[in-house]
Design a protein that fits this description.
The chain has helices at 28-37, 41-49, 54-59, 62-67, 73-94. The protein is built from 5 helices and no strands. Helix 1 runs antiparallel to helix 2. With 97 residues, the protein is mostly helical. The protein starts with 27 loop residues before the first helix and ends with a helix. Pfam families: SAM_1. InterPro entries: PcG_chromatin_remod_factors, SAM, SAM/pointed_sf. Residues 26-74 form the SAM domain. This is SAM domain-containing protein.
Length: 97
């Protein structure tokens, strides 16, 4: 995992054991880059505007994504179901003691 000068982590090309680096370590720029890389270029700006970093992303509820980011309903549902929820699940599985 490569740390950039601004403190963010290079998530585009980094995969550890078939999984992305722990989202809890992501800066706001990493969250934005993740959503841009997954096809949500327009919606990624909402995460930037709301200053959502990795720790905040992992705390988001379905309602937060659907109503708190001012994203259209269709993309918001996809972002939560196919990205936020799986990242939360991955984080919990890899950080269980």
């Amino acid at each position: 995992m490569e740390t950039k000068a601004n403190g963010s982590v290079d998530i585009k090309g980094t995969v550890e054991n078939g999984q992305l680096p722990d989202p809890a370590q992501w800066a706001v720029a990493d969250v934005v880059n993740y959503f841009k890389a997954t096809g949500f270029e327009e919606q990624a700006n909402a995460f930037q505007d709301q200053e959502i970093d990795g720790k905040s992303l992992l705390l988001m509820t379905r309602n937060d994504v659907l109503t708190g980011l001012s994203i259209k309903l269709g993309p918001a549902l996809k972002i939560y179901e196919y990205h936020v929820k799986p990242l939360q699940t991955q984080h919990l599985k890899t950080n269980v003691s």
